[in-house]
Specification:
Layout: H1 9-17, H2 23-41, E1 44-47, H3 49-62, E2 72-76, H4 103-110, E3 114-119, H5 153-160, E4 166-171, H6 177-183, E5 186-189, E6 209-214, H7 217-227, E7 257-261, H8 271-286, E8 290-294, H9 302-317, H10 337-348, H11 351-364, H12 370-390, E9 396-400, H13 416-421, H14 427-432, E10 436-443, E11 449-455, H15 461-474
């Protein structure tokens, strides 16, 4: 079958069970696509051809026990994979090979998933364009001159180019939803604490989440079934039952109350993007949903709070990368320990990481903690209350994911503030710790994808996936392929 790469997870599983093709055939097909397409897309940092084919053969021999069994996937290179290098797209970890799997990877291995390789990202997940990588920028499969979004841009590009059936990414301030939107695929940011962060290189510990990117909401539901749940290695995960996220996907949304936050369609959002998303909202209204305009007045403060809180936590988390326990040794000889650290971190960290470490260290320094970090956390509490109040009146919120179409590579690289402001529509949900789903809902005049964001209360992944699935049953944006 020449179009194997176009199948959804459910279709792949059915095909394997019916012996229409084998996991080896499937994996070989995807590896061939990577070999053909990735020199242009640059989604992958490492391709584990030998490991993937070996696992596929094992699955064929043992049988296909679950929905993800034998299904080839891609993994963001921030996530530890035992025996396969995990670089975080940073020079300081360029040769790091972890001795253990992250919990989410161990859970995928339990499902007999086939891992094709590790995908590119902004260094240590710091960025929204996948340009800040020591391996170079990933390109958007819809237009190679444009960014795929970030920081999970490699994961999104791999799925969009049909080089993987699904991928894992991380979302701290929008790093799954943004690339999903700009690459025309589906991406899920989970409730904080729904998926274990153990074995995932920490960026901002009170914000980080791990989630799936796939062709459809149903694909994301299958992956979430596998990776969600309590983990003793991550104290922020909750001891809650993990539902079957695929069970009620087909349940209709008639009577569902949808809130449309006016702040998400205000100045700064490209009118064309707003129009496409509003057309998507009309499709949900046709399905019986009830629309209501709502207000989230603290939205305008979210970016400021994030870019104080996140760098502070990042600077603390990256302190461990000193090229003694972790990281590559510096090329220059050092006369003392201070010089050794200086050389190692100067060579090992890129400009964006250095910028954020300096901001974060300043924020946490004596005399400034209360003025900045503590104040940012107080603002975050107000944002949480905003969402809680909104969800008293509506079931979900619908909004754009990104304020514009994908911009050109290099266009904003020298303007960090413009890059930060571009996260304005995804950061608020991250601040509140609530889940958000990005689904493709149309294209701009330049034939670039636009994503619609479905936001729900904490632990409402079942609901937002159902809304996304219902939308995708009556639209075909998710079936469009760039290559």
């Amino acid at each position: 079958m020449s179009d194997l790469h176009s199948l959804t997870i459910c279709e792949v599983h059915r095909g394997l069970k019916d012996r229409k093709f084998s996991a080896e055939e499937l994996t070989g097909h995807m590896l061939a696509r990577i070999e053909k397409l990735d020199p242009e897309v640059k989604a992958f940092i490492t391709v584990d051809k030998e490991g993937a084919m070996k696992k596929a053969a094992e699955v064929d021999a043992s049988g296909y026990k679950g929905a993800l069994s034998g299904v080839p996937a891609a993994i963001k290179d921030l996530i530890n994979t035992a025996g396969v290098r995990s670089t975080s797209a940073s020079n300081i970890l360029k040769r790091y090979v972890p001795p253990y799997d992250a919990t989410c990877i161990a859970k995928l291995r339990d499902e007999d998933a086939v891992m094709l390789g590790k995908t590119n990202l902004d260094e240590f997940a710091c960025g929204g364009s996948t340009e800040h990588s020591c391996f170079g920028a990933t390109r958007n499969p819809w237009d190679f001159e444009r960014i795929p979004g970030g920081s999970s841009g490699g994961s999104a590009a791999a799925v969009a180019a049909r080089m993987a059936f699904y991928a894992l990414g991380t979302d701290t301030g929008g790093s799954i939803r943004t690339p999903a939107a700009l690459c025309g695929i589906t991406g899920l940011k989970v409730t904080y604490g729904r998926v274990s962060r153990s074995g995932v290189t920490a960026m901002a510990s009170s914000w980080d989440t791990i989630g799936p990117l796939g062709k459809t909401a149903e694909d994301c539901a299958y992956v979430l079934n596998a990776i969600a749940g309590k983990d003793v290695k991550d104290s922020t995960t909750l001891d809650m039952k993990v539902p079957d996220y695929t069970k009620d996907l087909d349940k209709n949304i008639k009577g569902l109350k949808i809130g449309v936050p006016k702040e998400y369609f205000a100045e700064g959002v490209d009118p064309e993007v707003a129009r496409v998303v509003k057309d998507g909202i009309k499709e949900l209204e046709k399905l019986g949903a009830v629309l209501k305009e709502v207000s989230l007045p603290m939205t305008k403060y979210a970016v400021s709070a994030y870019y104080i809180s996140m760098p502070a936590e990042l600077s603390a988390n990256l302190a461990r990368f000193d090229a003694i326990r972790y990281g590559s040794k510096p090329e220059e000889d050092a006369k003392d320990l201070k010089s050794y650290y200086l050389n190692a971190r100067t060579e090992g960290f890129g400009d964006e990481i250095k910028r954020r470490i300096m901001i974060g260290t300043y924020v946490l320094s004596a005399g400034y903690y209360d003025s900045y970090y503590k104040k940012a956390q107080q603002v975050r509490t107000l944002i949480i209350k905003d969402f809680e109040k909104a969800f008293e009146d509506v079931d979900v919120l619908i909004a754009p994911v990104f304020p514009s179409e994908a911009f050109k590579i290099g266009e904003k690289i020298s303007d960090p503030l413009a890059m930060y402001i571009a996260d304005a529509l995804t950061i608020p949900a991250s601040a509140a710790g609530v889940p958000g789903l990005s689904v493709p809902c149309g294209f701009t005049k330049n034939k670039l994808p636009v994503g619609m964001q479905i936001i729900g209360p904490q632990f409402s992944e079942e609901l937002i996936l159902r809304v996304g699935h219902n939308f995708q049953k009556v639209t075909d944006w998710h079936t469009k392929e760039p290559l």
